[in-house]
Amino acid sequence: MKFIDRQAEMQRLDRLAARAEGGLAVLWGRRRIGKTRLLLEWCRRHDGLYAVGDQSAPTVQRAYLAQALSTRFETLGEATYPDWTSLLRRIAREAGTTGWRGPLVLDEFPYWVQAGAELVSQFQRWIDGEARQAKLAVAIAGSSQRMMQGLVLDASSPLYGRAVELLEIGPLGAGFLREGLNLRDAISCVQSYAVWGGVPRYWELAEPYGPDLECAVDECVLDPLGPLHREPDRLLLEELPPAAACRPILDVIGMGAHRLSEIAGRLGKPATSLGHALSRIVDLGLVRREQPYGESEKSGKRSLYKIADPLFRCWFRIVAPHRALLAHASESVRRSLWREARASLFAEAWEELCRQAVVRIHEGSCPLAQYGPWKPAARYWQGDGPEWDVVTESLDGEHLLVGEVKWTDRPASHEVMDKAIGDLKAKGIPGCFRGRDRHILYAVFIPKTSSRSKRRGDVYVVDARDVLSSLTGKTES
Question: Residue 476's pLDDT is what?
């Protein structure tokens, strides 16, 4: 798959490469998210060098690193290096002699650190000394988010405060799916996002199937021989340290337990014992902690835990409860399981994308743009009362937005639109907005309608083209 987007991240890396004095960049993000592809593209543009760590002994790691860099420094791999300091100094000396200023990329840096913790302090002295003198642009990256953040964000770490650029690499915007998978329309993008999310590695696996989502899901996820059939287990095991102990929590959340008390009850454990594991999978981007709009993040009384990654959501909805069946099921049986689950997956993804889009709807053709920019949107619920799908307010505080999200994969009729509007109006005003003298806007988010109008009475209509265009900066058709 061709390199897509990452313009903001690349601009920051390019800025580092252009700095006369060089410097250090630190990148992290969950596995499969595209860190390596971004760094390889950066190296290609600037004639850089790329090396990747592995889980081996330090002496072997140093030999591999020297060999990887010998494509530029021919004699580097001929020597033996007793410690990291000697190798790092040799790299800086060779760079200074030849006038090469990088970038030098050290990917999967936590593998090196795990094998020998002394590397961190030696690397820090090198960054402050020889690398600075050689004016090298250096980037370190890793998928172990907790370890990478600890290396640069923990005040006690030797690398604290050394980085010029700190980049957390997140998912690609859903609107880029059309370009990445050669999809026909905005609705197909939403449907594909419901499975692959914004993870480039999953897009690469799905790309050969084009618009045939059912075939891609069957062969990549549901088929026991598919590359993603055991993806959650693999990803948790690849973390440093392994996060396999978090798997039961993902299972019960996937089965419908969303409150902390429910999760603890199904696991037969006290709620107080789950804090560390929940924080871990939230940090990994696999689960999100959801609160009603306007409620303090410190308050956990009404918090819900939801599977955040679309592929994991699909996997725990279909694969996890049917592992025994899928082990010997025919293709037709596998596909029937997908058809049973897909509507709810599409609807959940659509609602998620609508909330993501609101904060970026401040320019373009969307009718709500004129009232923005908007604060991040969220759901709102209280007790046994109604729930609102989209709730937010403009940054200037002058406008309040209340929205209803409806999923349909075909143009919505007037009757469907009228029902969505009726449902929205019947709920009244969310408790977080009551007593506030502000202009209230109503909106219905629906993928496609049979009308070209962006309003029905006093209610604005936001479709899939509006949503995806806000998530890419491009207009969808």
Answer: 41
- With b for 16 or more beta-carbon neighbours within 10 A and e for fewer, the 68-93 pattern comes to bbeebbeebbeeebeebbebbbbbbe
Residue 436 CB burial class (10 angstroms; 0-12, 13-18, ≥19): exposed
> Which letter, b or e, does each residue of 334-354 get, where b requires 16 or more Cβ atoms within 10 Å of its Cβ?
bbebbeebbeebbbbbbbbbb
% of the chain residues with pLDDT over 90: 74
Cis check: omega of the bond before 171, within 30 degrees of 0: no
Q: Which of the four pLDDT bands, split at 50, 70 and 90, describes residue 455?
A: confident
**Element spanning 9, H or E:** helix 7-18
Q: Which of 353, 26, 384 minimizes the C-alpha distance to 189?
A: 353
373, pLDDT greater than 80: yes
Give the burial string for 152-166 (b: 16+ CB within 10 Å, else e). beeeebbbeebbbbe
Please report the domains of the chain, with CATH numbers, ordered by start residue.
Answer: 7-168 (3.40.50.300), 175-345 (1.10.10.10), 351-470 (3.40.1350)
Which residue is it, tokens 């200074």?
96
Q: What is the tens place of the pLDDT at every residue in 278-324?
A: 998 998 889 999 999 988 877 777 899 999 999 999 999 999 999 99
- Strand arrangement, sheet containing 137-142: 49-52, 104-107, 137-142, 23-28, 163-168
